[in-house]
Design a protein that fits this description.
This protein is an alpha+beta fold. Helices cover 28% and strands 29% of the residues. A hairpin with a 2-residue loop joins strand 6 and strand 7 (148-153). Coenzyme A is lined by residues 21-22, 25, 93-95, 100-106, 124, 128-130, 132-133.
């Protein structure tokens, strides 16, 4: 059984692991945790989590952390990869390798969409099958940055 709960400061090490999972989704171009820990984006996406406007969820299966999703607000001065506006937070997500394809990613995404009052954005690199999951959950492409698509989901009326 998968349970989903709110992420706390104690979950930061796991969220950091998930950040690396998301950045290294493609094994042929993966750079590894040591690289990402030194990269500016590491602090940009997770430094000081949870800030007052951060929100995250951790999925657990059989008592083990299996995946996580979180949002953080960015600004035009320091945009995230999937920046749309300073009023729309950007998602990061990932599921640990041995637990993919079991519905955990979908469960996390559904839960964070339910928790969001406004829009949500994200960035997905070309070729990542996660794009299909995002489309199925109502995200639409709104822009391109490098080899990635920025996707946006606005609340349904
Ligand atoms: C993307 C990710 C979060 C999805 O979580 P998951 O628990 O594996 O996905 P689910 O089992 O909930 O599957 C939901 C949908 O995701 C899509 N999907 C995810 N990974 C897929 C893969 N490797 N191949 C094909 N479809 C995939 C499918 O559309 C699937 O829907 P379906 O069951 O109707 O076919 C997870 O695979 C992961 O962490 N991948 C590596 C990191 C990553 O890419 N993060 C996102 C960066 S933008």
């Amino acid at each position: 059984m998968t349970t989903t709960r709110r992420a706390t400061a104690a979950d930061l090490p796991f969220l950091e692991e998930v950040f690396v999972i998301a950045m290294d989704w493609n094994p042929s171009t993966a750079r590894g945790a040591a690289h990402w820990r030194e990269d500016a984006t590491f602090q940009q996406y997770l430094g000081g989590f949870p800030r007052p406007t951060d929100f995250g969820l951790v999925a657990e299966r059989e008592g083990e952390q299996a995946g996580a999703v979180w949002w953080r607000y960015f600004t035009a001065d320091e945009p995230g990869y999937g920046f749309v506006s300073d009023e729309i937070p950007e998602l990061g997500m990932g599921v640990v390798e041995g637990r993919r394809g079991e519905g955990i990613g979908r469960a996390l995404l559904t839960a964070i969409i339910a928790a969001a009052k406004g829009g949500l954005s994200l960035s997905v690199e070309d070729g990542n099958p996660a794009e299909e999951l995002y489309r199925k959950q109502g995200f639409v492409p709104v822009g391109r940055v490098g080899d990635s698509t920025t996707m946006l989901r606005m609340p349904q009326r």
